[in-house]
Amino acid sequence: MSYTDVHRAFLQACSNHGTLSKQQALDILIGIYTRFGDSSDVPSEDNLVDVVAKINERIYRFDQKISYMHYEPTEKDFFVFVNLQESPIDLQQNFYTAAELHYFRVLLRELTLSEDHTLGSMVCLNLTNETAGDGMKAVTKSRAEQLLSEWEQLGYFLMLEDKCYFGPKAIVEFEKYLNKNYADVITRCCLCNVTIFYGIRCATCPQILHKDCLKKYLRRLTNCPACKKLWSVAL
After folding, report:
1. What is known about its subunit structure (predicted)?
2. Phi then psi for 183, rounded to 5 degrees?
């Protein structure tokens, strides 16, 4: 498959949105096909996968990628446009003040250190108290509310039932950053060896696994892959 205007337009859409659900991505691709492709062809999920793979061949050398992920808090699939550099947070310096970027780092830190990787919405706002100092004026709570809404739209965080979660973009884009800075608290799924934030825990041992990984595993075996006891937690 040659690299066409379809690929260029879809890459631009991913870059603009940051995070797209699978259905949103497919709807966008259908619109792009209507404009640039054969309007009699309706792209399928297979076409979507092919288009993303072709784009990734082009942009990987620029430390960029469109990643596909299953996001367990909402049980939805997403395509996430990410920068693969060591400190992607620094790429936002032209858009946010030093205090606002520090607030972002504090949110990442506290979400990582919390037991279930969630924070109450009021806790998130109160973290603005940590943004003053070193010549920085503290981020106000009203500004923090705006930032949380903006960062949620970009896919960095998710506000769900008065709790803040890592969003799909943060999980993908900041995996290296979090593993480097919080290696002692970051865990990996023992089935896929990918960093895990939200999953399902065994009833008889501390092991936590991606739900999708566990579903595939339990099609063949019925025991916990860590403690080897019968898996009893409902999926």
Report:
1. Component of the Smc5-Smc6 complex.
2. -60, -30
